[in-house]
Design a protein that fits this description.
Helices cover about 25% and strands about 30% of the residues. The chain contains 16 helices and 33 strands. Strands 16, 17, 18, 19, 20, 21, 22, 23 and 24 form a nine-stranded mixed beta sheet that branches. A nine-stranded mixed beta sheet has the order 25-28-27-26-29-32-31-33-30, with helices on both faces. Helix 1 crosses helix 2 and helix 11 packs parallel to helix 12. The protein is globular and about 90 Å long.
Length: about 675
C-alpha cells in the first residue's frame, strides 16, 4: 500500500509462553496493528498489538513500540495439523497485507519444527524438576572438597614460621557439627576459598571460605575477615595457642590463642549483618545463607545454663518442601514451654504455633513427679521450613520457653521417616483431625502437588520398545490372577486386531513384575503385534507418565486402560474403533463393577479409561490436574465436547485403589484448584 509501512520483529516462539514480539505502523505509531499468524501463506490465527507491553531489547528508542502475543494454545493447534502441512512455514504478517515480520533467528520455522519443540517442552515440563541447589549448598560442597584436599597437607610436617604468619583469629563460634565460624584479619591477596589444616594437639583438615571487608584499625596491608570452616574440629571452651595452616604445602598460617574469644550466635549475626553490605569478594551471598543455619543448636546447652528441660519426638514425618509433622513430649518444670524448632541437616524449621497442640502425658508422671508438670507435656506440631529432599543428619529439637530461653535435645534418628501420603494418611489425620482447616494446609497441599510432580518421570523400557502409530496402553493389575487374566485376554484378542496395532504394558515394582516379564515374553512369541513393556516406580495410575510412553512409541492415537481394569468384549471392539478413528475426538469408556452396573464408587467415566489422539492429550496434559493415585473418580478429563463419544460397558473393575482418606482429600482439592476436569 503506497505511503504505508510497518516494522516489527517476532522475538520468540516459546511453546509454554506463546509467540511474542512487537509491531509498529510507522504511518500511525499510536494505532494498534492487526496481525495474522499464517501457515503456508494462509491465515491461521489473529492477534493485535497492545500498548502496555513490556519493552524488549532491540526496539528503537522513544517510539513507544507496542507488542503482541499469540497464546501457547496456538502450538496445540499447529501440532494437530495434518502431516502434509508439516513442512509449511509459519509466519506473522500484518493483516490484509504482504508485510511479514522478521524473526529473531532470521528464518521462518515450519509447522513440524514448532510441533516438535512443543512436544519437547511439554515432556520437559512433565518431568520431575531438578532439585533446587542454593549458593549456600554449592559453597558447602566446595568446602567439603577442599577439606578432602587438605587430607594430603595434614600428612606433611607443619611448622609456624613467624615470617609466614598471614593473620589472626580473634573470635570463634561453633555453629554445629562440622561448621566453625571465625572473625579476624588476614593479609590482602587471600583467595576467598581454600583448603586448610587446623593444628590443635592433632591435625584437622578443613575447607575455608572468607568474607573480606575493610577495617579502619588495620594497616593498609591487612583486611578484616569473617570466615566459615568446614571441619571436624571444635574449639575448646578455653582457647589455647593453635594454628590454621593454609597454602598447598601448609606454608602459611593464621594464629589463635588465649586472646581468642568464643562468640554467641547473636554476636556473630550482628557482626555479619554489619559487614555484609560492604563486603568484598564473591561468597558474601552464599555465606549469608549459611550464617544462621546452625546457630544455637548445641545439644546440652540447657544443662550448661542450669535449666532442667527434657524432650523427645516419638513420630517425625518429613515432607520435602514443607517441613515435618511431629508428635512428641517436652517437660520443663521451672518454665512454660511456648513453641518448638527442629533442625535436620542444614534446614531449621519452626513450629506453626496456631496449629501446635499440647496434651497430657500421664505415662511421664512416674519420671517427672507432679501431674502439673506432665499436664501439657505431650505435643503435636507442624514444623515449617524449606526442607530439601536430600536432608540428612541426626534431628535436633529445640524447646523454646516463654522467656525466650531454649533447650536443645537430640532426636532418635529412627523416629524420622518420609511421609507417604497414601500409607500414612490415617496417622496424619489422627495428629491433625481438622487438617483441611489448619493454617498450614495450603502449604501442605502445595508440597503434596510438588511430590506428585517429582514422582512423574519417564518410565524405563524393560525390553526394546516396538513403535506403533496406534497403541493400546494397559496398566497391568497387581494381583497375580488378574495379571494372568490380562495377558490371556491379549493373547486371544490381538490376532484379530487391525494390522500394526501396538500394545504398551506398564508394570510397577511390585511382586508381580517378574511374572509380568515372563508373560510378556510368552505373548511376544504367540502374536505378531508390536509389543512394549515399561516399568514405573510407583503403584498408581500412569497418566503423568503417559506422554513419555506415547512419545517413545511414536503413537498418533491411543487407548488408555488403567490399573485394575480389564476390557469387556464391547470395550475391546470400542478400543479398536477408537484407534482407527480420524481426527482428535475423545472417546470415553464406561467402567462397570462386577455386577455389570456403572461404577459409582471410583467413577464410571474418568481418566482411568479413554481413547484420544496423542496431540489432543498432550495439549490437555499441560493444564490437567495430577493426582496422588494418578486418577480421581470423575475427574482428570476435559468436560464433554461435540464429537466426543461414550463406549458403554467397556471395562470391568477387578481391583480398586487402596482406601486412603487423606489421598481422597488431597486429590479432591487438587482437582478443585486446577479448575479443570470433572464431568
Amino acid at each position: 500500500m503506497p505511503g504505508l509501512s510497518w516494522r516489527g520483529l517476532v522475538e520468540r516462539f516459546d511453546p509454554l509462553a506463546g509467540i511474542e514480539g512487537w509491531a509498529l505502523a510507522e504511518h500511525a505509531p499510536d494505532a494498534p496493528v492487526e496481525l495474522e499468524l499464517t501457515v503456508g501463506g494462509d491465515a491461521f490465527a489473529l492477534a493485535a498489538t497492545y500498548p502496555d507491553f513490556a519493552e524488549f531489547d532491540g526496539r528503537p528508542a522513544g517510539l513507544g513500540l507496542p507488542g503482541f502475543r499469540f497464546p501457547p494454545e496456538i502450538f496445540t493447534r499447529l501440532a494437530k495439523l495434518s502431516a502434509r502441512r508439516r513442512s509449511l512455514p509459519v509466519a506473522i504478517r500484518v493483516a490484509g497485507t504482504d508485510a511479514v515480520l522478521a524473526t529473531a533467528t532470521g528464518r521462518l520455522p515450519s509447522v513440524g519444527e514448532l510441533a516438535s519443540a512443543w512436544r519437547r517442552a511439554l515432556l520437559g515440563a512433565a518431568a520431575a524438576p531438578e532439585p533446587r541447589i542454593t549458593k549456600g549448598d554449592r559453597l558447602l560442597a566446595r568446602l567439603a572438597a577442599f577439606r578432602a584436599e587438605a587430607e594430603a597437607t595434614a600428612l606433611l610436617p607443619l611448622r609456624p614460621f613467624s615470617d609466614n604468619e598471614i593473620g589472626q583469629i580473634e573470635a570463634l563460634h561453633l555453629a554445629g557439627e562440622g561448621q566453625v565460624w571465625f572473625v579476624g584479619w588476614m593479609k590482602r591477596g587471600a583467595e576467598p576459598e581454600f583448603p586448610a589444616v587446623i593444628l590443635d594437639r592433632q591435625k584437622y583438615p578443613a575447607g575455608i571460605a572468607i568474607l573480606q571487608y575493610e577495617r579502619a584499625d588495620l594497616p593498609a596491608s591487612a583486611i578484616g575477615v569473617i570466615g566459615l570452616m568446614e571441619t571436624g574440629w571444635a574449639p575448646p571452651p578455653a582457647a589455647r595457642d593453635g594454628f590454621v595452616y593454609v597454602g598447598r604445602q601448609g606454608q602459611y598460617h593464621l594464629r589463635y590463642g588465649a586472646q581468642t574469644k568464643l562468640l554467641r550466635a547473636e554476636a556473630l549475626h550482628a557482626a555479619f549483618a554489619q559487614v555484609q553490605p560492604v563486603a568484598l569478594g564473591p561468597v558474601a551471598e552464599a555465606l549469608g545463607q549459611l550464617v544462621g543455619a546452625g546457630s544455637n543448636w548445641l545439644p546440652g546447652n540447657a544443662a550448661a545454663a542450669g535449666m532442667v528441660a527434657e524432650g523427645g519426638i516419638d513420630r517425625l514425618l518429613m515432607l520435602p518442601g514443607f517441613g515435618c509433622l511431629a508428635e512428641g513430649w517436652a517437660v520443663s518444670p521451672a518454665k512454660r514451654i511456648e513453641t518448638f524448632h527442629l533442625k535436620l541437616g542444614d534446614c531449621a524449621m519452626i513450629a506453626d504455633e496456631a496449629s501446635t497442640a499440647f496434651r497430657p502425658r500421664p505415662d511421664l508422671q512416674p519420671v517427672f513427679g507432679a501431674a502439673s508438670v506432665t499436664a501439657r507435656a505431650g505435643f503435636v506440631a507442624a514444623l515449617r521450613g524449606a526442607l530439601p529432599a536430600n536432608a540428612t543428619g541426626a534431628p535436633l529439637l529445640r524447646i523454646v520457653h516463654d522467656d525466650g530461653s531454649m533447650a536443645v535435645q537430640r532426636v532418635e534418628p529412627k523416629a524420622l521417616r518420609r511421609l507417604d501420603l497414601l500409607a500414612d494418611g490415617e496417622e496424619v489425620l489422627r495428629l491433625f483431625p481438622a487438617l483441611r482447616h489448619e493454617p498450614f494446609y495450603p502449604a501442605f497441599l502445595d508440597a503434596a502437588r510438588r511430590r506428585i510432580d517429582e514422582r512423574t518421570r519417564e518410565p524405563a523400557p524393560l525390553f526394546q520398545p516396538a513403535p506403533a502409530l496406534r497403541v493400546l496402553v494397559l496398566r497391568l493389575p497387581g494381583e497375580p490372577a488378574n495379571l494372568r487374566l490380562a495377558f490371556d485376554q491379549l493373547a486371544r484378542r490381538l490376532p484379530s486386531a487391525p494390522a500394526g496395532t501396538g500394545v504398551a504394558l506398564v508394570a510397577d515394582q511390585g511382586p508381580g513384575r517378574g511374572e509380568a516379564k515372563l508373560l510378556f515374553r510368552e505373548l511376544q512369541d504367540a502374536v505378531a503385534a508390536p509389543l512394549s513393556l515399561f516399568g514405573t516406580s510407583h503403584e498408581e495410575d500412569i497418566l503423568g507418565e503417559l506422554p513419555f510412553i506415547l512419545e517413545a512409541l511414536g503413537a498418533e492415537r491411543f487407548v488408555h486402560v488403567g490399573r485394575g481394569l480389564v476390557p469387556t468384549g464391547e470395550g475391546w471392539d470400542g478400543a479398536m474403533a477408537s484407534l482407527t478413528r480420524r481426527g482428535h475426538g475423545l472417546d470415553r469408556f464406561e467402567i462397570v463393577d462386577d455386577t455389570g452396573r456403572p461404577d459409582r464408587v471410583d467413577g464410571a467415566l474418568s481418566s482411568v479409561c479413554f481413547g484420544w489422539s496423542t496431540v489432543g492429550f498432550l495439549g490437555w496434559s499441560r493444564r490437567a490436574p495430577r493426582f496422588l493415585r494418578g486418577a480421581y473418580r470423575f475427574g482428570g478429563l476435559p468436560r464433554p465436547a461435540p464429537g466426543d463419544r461414550v463406549i458403554g460397558t467397556a471395562a470391568i473393575r477387578l481391583e480398586r485403589p487402596r482406601p486412603a482418606r487423606l489421598a481422597d482429600m488431597i486429590d479432591e482439592d487438587l482437582m478443585r484448584m486446577s479448575g479443570e476436569g470433572g464431568l
